[in-house]
Structure formats: structure tokens, C-alpha cells
Amino acid sequence: MKKLVVIDVGGTSIKYALWNQQAQELTNKSKVDTPRTLKNFYLKLEDIVAKFDGEELDGVSIAIPGAVNQKTGVIGGISALPYLHNFPIKSEIDKRLNLKVKMENDANSAALAEMKSGAGKNFHNVIFFVIGTGVGGSIVLDRKIVHGTHLLGGEFGMTASHHNKRLSHVATLVHMAELYNEQYKKNLTGRQVLERAHKGDEGALRLVNLMYRNLASAIYNAQFSIDPEVIIIGGGVSANPIFINDLNFAIRDLTNRIGQVPMVPQVIAAKYHNDANLIGAAYNFYQD
User: Fold this and answer.
1) How far apart are CA 278 and CA 152, in angstroms?
2) Whole-number average pLDDT of the chain
3) Are residues 63 and 146 in the same domain?
4) Residue 251: which domain range?
5) Does the N-terminal or the C-terminal CB of the chain have fewer CB atoms within 10 Å?
6) 207-258 residue pLDDT tens
7) Strands 267-269 and 230-234
8) Do 127 and 265 belong together in one domain?
9) For the segment 193-211, what is each residue's pLDDT rounded down to a tens digit?
10) Which distant-in-sequence residues (6+ apart) come within 8 Å of 27 by Cβ?
């Protein structure tokens, strides 16, 4: 029976699970806080894999931020975890885990999952925005992921946005909540600030609307650059219908203000939400 440890490295937490290839399902799901140093990152991976010592494993598959070069094992680009980048990290992980290891960009992993059996299974040309601590993305044309010349295809979080900040810093609930907490001396989550906005909190409403406007602009530009059939929102926020509804309202508002727009981007939620990266990591491991 084929089993695999799948790991999703995020800026705030590392999610992990056991994947059963025969049953096509995740079990033993859990998560830990993401370490702040490379040394502790390696130790955390070792701890996670050790939890499955009793299983006959085919290997470990990791969804991870950045421009993942699957041939060299180097992660280029930048992310919320600077210690991951620009050296042969995979070879070190291989030695420490003593198992076959594969890696892919986290948003591309989500795209693999959604295109094979999720919200994108009936489409050929799709853009993914995966929203967590930052904004990841993936471009799928003719059902193939576009990695790009520098492996930066779909890195929408790197695009310029409000006040010359990267989209990742101005279009997520995490960073929006940080702004709110800093301005109003609170300690709320993004979801809590979103709820306050819906109850009429003017400060929350101002920051939430700014977040939606930044994300709507990025989606609008992506639609008219690549012209996909649909744009799929992934990450934890995709499970929140309030977020998806408000984002669609912001997109319609933007297109109305621009005027003479031939279409409104169609935005839908991912099927697998927070599990997409884990499932996609498994698909990436076995797809060869």
C-alpha cells in the first residue's frame, strides 16, 4: 500500500498529513508553528516524519513557498521564510530524512490538486490566487502549469500594489489584521476583523475594503493579461463565503468604475481549501 508524508510549509504554520495513494485520501492531519530558523526547520521536518515511523513510506512530498527548481533542489525567489532560499536545500533535507523527497511551489501544488479533482477539473485555462500569510499564485494553460523562465510564473504576491508594496503585503487577512491591531491596539485575527467590518466598525471596514480593492485590481489585471476561463481562490480564506462574496463585489465595483469592460472576471472558491497544498504535494510526488 502506497503511503506518503505530505507537508505544507506556510509562513505561519506547517501542516502535515499521511497520504494514502490507493484510497486517495489524507489522514492524521495536524500542524505546528513554522520555525524562525533553518536549523529548527530541519528539526521540525525530522519530528514530523518520525511520527510516521510505523508506516511503510514511499517518501516525503513538500509544498513550499518560492521558485522551486525541482531539478536542482534550490528554491529561488523570496517568501515569508528567507532561510529557505538560494542554496541546495533539498539535498540537505534528503540526507536528514533518508527518504525520497520531492518539492513543489505551494500554489502550484494547490493548482495540481484543484485541476485534477477539485474546482478546476472541468476547465483548461485557470488562474489561482492562494491567500495565506502572503499571496501565492499559479497559471494553468491547457491544463499545464506555467512555471516561467525563472520559475516565477504566477507569483502574483510579488506584483506591485498599493503604495509600491508587494501584493502579498496588502491583500491578505493576516496583514490586514496586523494593520488593524497596530492602529487600534488590539490582538484580533483577520477573520475577527472581517466580522467587525460587517458589524459596522469603521476602522475595520476601511482596512478590509482596501484589502479587497488591492486583490480585485490584481485579479482584474490577471484576467485581462492571461484571459483564463475562471479564477480560483485557494487557501484558508476560500472556505469563508463572506470573503468570496465580498471579493466578487469588489471586482464588480472595479469593473463598473473602469467602464466599458467586456466581461467581469469569474471568481470561485477552491474545493480543498487548506488541504489543497497537501493533496497537490501527493499528486506531484506520484505524477511521474
Assistant:
1) 21
2) 96
3) no
4) 121-270
5) C
6) 999 999 999 999 999 999 999 999 999 998 999 999 999 999 999 999 999 9
7) parallel
8) yes
9) 999 999 999 999 999 999 9
10) 17, 18, 20
User: What pLDDT does residue 1 have?
Assistant: 59
Query: Rounded CA gap, 253 and 251, in Å?
Result: 5
HSE-CB at 219 with a 13 A cutoff on CA atoms is 34
Rounded to 10°, the helix 38-50/89-97 angle is 40
Closest alpha carbon to 130 in 243, 273, 242: 273
* 266 and 279 share one domain: no
Residue by residue, DSSP assigns 226-264 as: H--SEEEEESGGGG-HHHHHHHHHHHHHHHHHH---S--
User: Is 116 among the domain residues?
Assistant: no
Same domain assignment for residues 125 and 39:
no
Mean pLDDT of 131-147: 95
Q: Give the helix/strand (H/E) hosting 145.
A: strand 144-145
| Overall domain count for the chain | 2
Single-letter amino acid, residue 201 = D
Cell readout for 78 is 523570496
Q: What is the pTM of this model?
A: 0.92
Q: Identify whether the C-beta of residue 57 lies closer than 8 Å to the C-beta of residue 64.
A: no
Spatial neighbors of 14 by CB under 8 A, at least 6 apart, are: 7, 8, 31, 32, 33, 34, 44, 48
Cell 510549509 locates to: 9
pLDDT tens digits for range 98-113: 999 999 999 999 999 9
